[in-house]
């Protein structure tokens, strides 16, 4: 009997060890040409990964090492960013072009290797150069080390990845180049998509252009919702179904019940859905939230759809039920969702730092600037062209070496300067009529970074402006999650805002949709050495300069310092 018990104990220990042991998750991403036809357009070539739109979903468990071999067979330079991955100890794998690496040239390759220790939930990956993110993207799902039984919410019966995107009928690289060369913003998308397909409500919609999800009545599904769109926040609804949000940006939240999810570009939401409706067919719908009305640029006022079909439905060709769409300018609904979630507190997880070392007040918004020398088609006899900035500094990435290489080699001269301002150069009525003043709108180009000591705690007020147009900017920080202490409308008033700070269970995210014509306060600890991009996740605004970089200095040990670059790090041509 003792031998039997010993054998059973050995098997049990082996099983536990196999569950707890981290693995290496390895993929090869061939980035190349892919022929596709959408919206009754002739087949055209896009850039995609492994001939898929969206690209492959990467599944990993907390603590795993992810290895992705990028093979660039496309005609364009390429990088990949692992959106929301903290990249502790692996800053060379972060991916933004000319920030942490030079691009992978056509015919070249590079291996991204990073760990997902301490992270669980839905993240994603995408190209981080030009406008290639429009077609080069996919999901990154990180499950708990203990499997689905370790979720801090009721175990779902199944999961579905739901990636929202935007589609253009033109070549997105050429579109970005023309926008830069002329100084005229690129046109809006021709359609929104769900899992790469526009759905039933566009011209010439076909059956193979609508995504389908099958469910069984009374079962619970975890929807992993990602806004991979380029420039548009989206409302997401499922007809006749309510959702319970349990996570955002791979950070668990307390259960938040809603009939509409709002996701700005770059953000993710994990939501439970019980298939409790009558057996039938129902539309999922993604429609635009345009916070810039009436001042902002044109946008596509259309709706992407997918079909939620119950198993056993008799009439598989019956028209699905369509949810009621929020108004495109429904800021009240968007703000209620963005501000309504709180964190699910868990032992051993980060809590809000209470002592602040550095305070920053940063304006974000549009403006104008002079034509740059490289803008060869810019009309220099006309008024200034569109630009964007943070604290009136419009960011330009370097051309000959990446910021991280310059930092590591201690050779910043000629690459970047350490003078990003903690406050705007001029104090004015940021959201009022004074913003119409042409002097206020003018900005200059630079490559300014903010240098932080290792382990420094930063509190940043993000103040939206009405320069050109007020709108909700999705601000993303690479290399960190941050706590959202408070948010509101109008000009930030510290005396009243501090009383509203949530220092107990605030949301933790990597991308925040700053309220249109409003402000948000975030706080984070700079405990990750490297060069970390902070930017608006509207790609149209990144190219205009709505960005900056945090330079986080090394800590006291090799483990808290930037390691040497990998041998295959791409070189600038």
Write up what this structure looks like.
The chain is mainly beta. It contains seven helices and 32 strands. The protein folds into three domains: 22-145, Immunoglobulin-like (Sandwich), CATH 2.60.40.420; 153-344, Immunoglobulin-like; 358-560, Cupredoxins -  blue copper proteins (Immunoglobulin-like). The protein is 10% helix and 35% strand. The model is unreliable at 1-19 (pLDDT under 50).
List keywords for this structure.
single chain; 573 residues; mainly beta; Immunoglobulin-like; 3 domains; six-stranded mixed β-sheet; 32 strands; disordered N terminus
Write the layout of secondary structure elements.
Layout: H1 2-20, E1 24-36, E2 44-49, E3 58-61, E4 65-72, E5 80-83, E6 109-115, E7 121-127, E8 137-143, E9 158-167, H2 172-182, E10 191-194, E11 211-215, E12 220-227, E13 234-238, E14 243-248, E15 251-258, E16 261-263, E17 268-274, E18 281-288, E19 304-310, H3 331-340, E20 358-369, E21 385-390, E22 393-395, H4 403-408, H5 438-441, E23 444-446, E24 449-452, E25 456-464, E26 474-477, E27 482-489, H6 494-497, E28 508-509, E29 511-513, E30 518-526, E31 530-536, H7 539-542, E32 547-552
Parallel strand pairs: 1-4, 3-8, 9-12, 11-19, 20-25, 22-23, 24-32
Antiparallel strand pairs: 1-2, 4-6, 5-7, 7-8, 9-10, 12-17, 13-16, 13-18, 14-15, 14-17, 18-19, 20-21, 25-30, 26-29, 26-31, 27-28, 27-30, 31-32
């Amino acid at each position: 009997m003792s031998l039997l018990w010993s054998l059973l104990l050995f098997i049990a220990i082996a099983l536990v060890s196999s569950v707890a042991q981290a693995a290496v998750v390895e993929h090869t991403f061939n980035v190349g040409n892919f022929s596709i036809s959408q919206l009754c357009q002739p087949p055209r070539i896009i850039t995609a990964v492994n001939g898929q739109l969206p690209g492959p979903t990467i599944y990993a468990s907390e603590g795993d090492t992810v290895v992705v071999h990028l093979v660039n067979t496309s005609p364009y330079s390429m990088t990949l960013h692992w959106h929301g991955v903290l990249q502790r100890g692996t800053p060379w794998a972060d991916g933004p072009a000319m920030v942490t690496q030079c691009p992978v040239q056509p015919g070249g390759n590079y291996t991204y290797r990073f760990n997902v220790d301490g992270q669980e939930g839905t993240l994603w990956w995408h190209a981080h150069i030009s406008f290639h993110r429009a077609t080069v993207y996919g999901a990154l799902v990180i499950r708990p080390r203990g499997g689905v039984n370790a979720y801090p919410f009721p175990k779902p019966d199944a999961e579905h990845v739901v990636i929202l995107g935007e589609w253009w009928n033109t070549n997105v690289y050429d579109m970005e180049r023309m926008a830069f060369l002329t100084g005229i913003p690129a046109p809006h998308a021709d359609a929104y998509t769900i899992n790469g397909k526009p759905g039933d409500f566009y011209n010439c919609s076909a059956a193979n252009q609508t995504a389908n999800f099958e469910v069984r009545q009374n079962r619970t599904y975890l929807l992993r919702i990602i806004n991979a769109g380029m420039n548009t926040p989206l409302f997401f609804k499922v007809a006749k179904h309510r959702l319970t949000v349990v996570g955002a940006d791979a950070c668990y939240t307390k259960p938040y019940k809603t009939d509409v999810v709002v996701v700005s570009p770059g953000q993710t939401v994990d939501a439970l859905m019980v298939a409790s409706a009558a057996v039938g067919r129902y539309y999922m719908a993604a429609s635009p939230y345009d916070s810039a009305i009436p001042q902002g640029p044109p946008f596509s006022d259309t709706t992407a759809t997918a079909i939620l079909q119950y198993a056993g439905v008799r009439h598989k060709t019956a028209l699905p039920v369509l949810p009621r769409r929020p108004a495109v300018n429904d800021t009240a609904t968007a703000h209620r969702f963005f501000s309504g979630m709180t964190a699910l507190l868990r032992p051993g997880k980060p809590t809000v730092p209470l002592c602040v070392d550095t305070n920053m007040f940063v304006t974000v918004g549009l403006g104008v600037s002079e034509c740059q020398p490289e803008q060869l088609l810019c009309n220099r006899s006309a008024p200034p062209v569109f630009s964007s900035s943070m604290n009136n500094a419009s960011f330009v990435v370097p051309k000959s070496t990446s910021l991280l290489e310059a930092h590591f080699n201690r050779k910043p001269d000629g690459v970047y300067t350490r003078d990003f301002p903690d406050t705007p150069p001029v104090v004015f009525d940021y959201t009022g009529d004074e913003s119409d003043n042409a002097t206020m709108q003018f900005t200059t180009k630079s490559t300014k970074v903010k240098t932080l000591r290792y382990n420094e705690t930063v509190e940043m007020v993000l103040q939206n402006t009405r320069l050109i147009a007020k709108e909700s900017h999705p601000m993303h920080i690479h290399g960190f999650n941050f706590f959202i202490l408070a948010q509101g409308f109008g000009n930030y008033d510290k005396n009243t805002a501090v009383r509203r700070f949530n220092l107990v269970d605030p949301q933790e995210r990597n991308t925040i949709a700053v309220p249109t014509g409003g402000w948000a306060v975030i706080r984070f600890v700079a405990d990750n050495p490297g060069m970390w991009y902070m930017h608006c996740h509207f790609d149209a605004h990144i190219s205009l300069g709505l960005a900056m970089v945090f330079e986080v200095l090394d800590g006291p040990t090799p483990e808290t310092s930037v390691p040497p670059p990998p041998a295959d790090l791409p070189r600038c041509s």
